[in-house]
Amino acid sequence: MSKADLAHPELNADPIKLTIDGEERVFDINDPKLPDWIKDNDMASGGYPYADKMDKDDYEDRLERLQIELVKLQYWLQASGHRVLSLFEGRDAAGKGGTIFVIRQYMNPRVARNVALPKPTEVERGQWYYQRYIEHFPTAGEFVTFDRSWYNRAVVEPVMGFCTPAQTEKFLGETPSFERMIVNEGIHFFKFWLNIGQEMQLKRFHDRRHDPLKIWKFSPIDIAGMGLWDDYTRRRDMMMKRTHTAHAPWTVLKTNDKRRARLAAIRHILSSLPYDGRDDALIGDQDDKIVCAGPQIIGS
Question: CA dihedral in degrees (136, 106, 249, 76; nearest 10)?
Answer without folding.
Answer: 90
